[in-house]
Design brief:
Blueprint (H helix, E strand, L loop, with lengths): L2 E6 L6 H17 L4 E3 L30 H11 L3 E9 L2 E9 L5 E6 L11 H4 L9 E4 L2 E5 L8 H9 L4 E5 L15 H15 L2 E5 L2 E6 L2 E6 L3 E3 L5 E4 L6 E6 L2 H11 L22
Helix pairs in contact: 4-5
Family: Belongs to the carbon-nitrogen hydrolase superfamily.
GO molecular function: N-carbamoylputrescine amidase activity
Organism: Deinococcus cellulosilyticus (strain DSM 18568 / NBRC 106333 / KACC 11606 / 5516J-15)
């Protein structure tokens, strides 16, 4: 059975400090036997999307000759671990919130570009990111079939269902989520956030895990406190491992994909699907195609 590790960490505004911390925690996870290791979303810097600033586009880089992707590619090969790595991608005149997948032999398996892009106070992602056009992806890695969505993707059951239809036994979500700005009257969303993903675990009979950041990040007049609560759920929706809102560390769980597949077949969720009735999902208003 492969072992999953989920990393929760705080960030600074210094790229190398964040990369070094990420490398250290990946090594720690591998030393504890982890073979699939998940870091949080955009761990290279503060969550800059709190504000709309032209200068933050300078944080984006192409995949080729990227400042830190090769570091994690070499680390995956050295430690024989699977690493999905979140990064801010520049591709021509487009910018994406992306993820590079490295297999356990260091093979670069390709890029997923975040499909659902949020827009609201403190989370101004539509200013920075083009909507991804890669479609949802499931990666056939050495240690199993893994689907990876990015943060806002985790609220969409369609994303989870498609990745599972493509063969995923494990759904991963690198994340950056926390407090809302003072002018937004909304509750702490961490319970909603977990429940949405637990629903994906139940409906797809698949393991689900999310890696969030922690700490308070202040950029000019903006400030956000990220609420952590990174977790791993089994294929029945039971949370097996979870961190609190302030602890930096690593979660672990052994994954029994064989048992999950047997359970999934027995539940019949995929047997009883009626895709011919789901046409309204292809529309924005439920009617107009």
């Amino acid at each position: 059975m492969p072992k999953l590790a989920v990393i929760q960490m705080s960030m600074t505004q210094v790229l190398q400090e964040n990369v070094d911390k990420g490398v250290k925690l990946v090594r720690e996870a591998a030393a504890h036997g982890a073979q699939i290791i998940l870091l949080p979303e955009l761990f290279e810097n503060y969550y800059f999307c709190q504000l709309e600033r032209e200068e933050y586009f300078e944080l984006a880089h192409p995949v080729e000759n990227h400042p830190f992707l090769s570091t994690f590619q070499e680390l995956a090969k050295e430690l024989k671990v699977v690493l999905p790595i979140s990064f801010f991608e520049k591709a021509g005149q487009a910018h994406y919130n992306s993820l590079a997948m490295f297999d356990a032999d260091g093979t670069f398996m390709g890029v997923y570009r975040k499909s659902h892009i949020p827009d609201g106070p403190g989370y101004e992602e539509k200013y920075y990111f083009n909507p991804g056009e890669t479609g949802f992806r499931t990666w056939e890695t050495k240690y199993g079939n893994i689907g990876v969505g990015i943060c806002w993707d985790q609220w969409y059951p369609e994303c989870a269902r498609i990745m599972t239809l493509l063969g995923a036994d494990l759904l991963l979500y690198p994340t950056a989520i926390g407090s809302e700005p003072a002018e937004v009257a909304s509750p702490n969303s961490h319970f909603m956030w977990q429940r949405a993903m637990i629903g994906h675990a139940v409906s797809n009979s698949a393991y689900v895990a999310a890696a969030n950041r922690i700490g308070t990040e202040k950029i000019e007049h903006a400030e956000a406190t990220f609420y952590g609560h990174s977790f791993i759920s089994d294929y029945t929706g039971d949370i097996k491992q979870e961190l609190d809102e302030e602890t930096e560390g690593v979660l672990y769980l052994d994954l029994d994909f064989k048992e999950a597949r047997k359970f999934r077949a027995g539940m019949g969720f995929f047997r009883d699907r009626r895709p011919q009735l789901y046409g309204p999902l292809l529309t924005m208003d439920g009617k107009t195609r």
